[in-house]
Amino acid sequence: MMRYILVGILVLMTAVVGFMTYQWYRTPSAGQPFGAPFTLIDQNGAEITEAAFRGQPSVVFFGFTHCPEVCPTTLVEMDGWLKKLGDEGKDIRAYFVSVDPERDTPDVMKTYVSNVSDRIVGITGAPDKVAAMTKSFGIYSRKVDTGDGDYTMDHSASVLMLKRSGDFFGTIAYEENPDTALAKLKRLAREG
To answer: Considering only CA atoms, which of 47, 35, 75 is closest in space to residue 163?
Structure first.
């Protein structure tokens, strides 16, 4: 009996956290709309703005190239999902936005992303502009000193799904069940 109660509590807590995450992404920061205008640089050195997230559904992941696990895993998963979708997901655009623009230059982003996928576009830029963009998308990131003269980055680990309008559609959690992630992407391709 106690086991069923604990499972019930766990399911309820998961639902509450999921709802809160949805509300957090859905609700703009005070005074700022979701996905405020930005001007950054893509992996080829070309200017990229919020217009890139309009006209087709998009998936956007925020991370950094020195990330030991979450970022490379997520990019490999994104590439795999897009390949599995085939023609059904051909209109979905994929982006990897650096939360560490001090180290992640366009050249670094291009080398890093191209080792994983030809569908994902790396985005970076001036630190203040990247910080403003991540804030407008409700993304948490923070530089953490490792104590040895180096640093790492804490950051949100969900993939954002955006509608053709550029508005929020949903998220795919880090290490989400692959079938669930594919179902979400199919829905994004169809309805987003």
So the answer is: 35
Give the integer Cα–Cα distance in Å for 47 and 24: 29
Angstrom distance (rounded) from CA 112 to CA 101: 14
Whether residue 162 contacts residue 168, with contact meaning beta carbons closer than 8 Å, is answered with yes
User: Rounded CA gap, 186 and 181, in Å?
Assistant: 9
Q: Where are the domains of the chain?
A: 38-191
CATH of domain 38-191: 3.40.30.10
pLDDT tens digits for 145-186? 999 989 999 999 999 999 999 999 999 999 999 999 999 999
Q: At what angle do helices 178-191 and 70-85 cross, to 10 degrees?
A: 60
CA gap 13, 73 in Å, rounded: 26
Q: Which residues, 6+ apart, have CB-to-CB distance to 44 below 8 Å?
A: 106, 110
Containing 47, the helix (H) or strand (E) segment is: strand 47-49
CA dihedral 135, 168, 12, 30 (to 10 degrees): 40
129 SS3 class:
helix
Of 89 and 30, more confident: 89
pTM: 0.82
The strand pairing partners of 2, in sequence order, are: none
Classify residue 158 by its DSSP letter.
P
Up-side HSE of residue 99: CA atoms within 13 Å toward CB?
A: 24
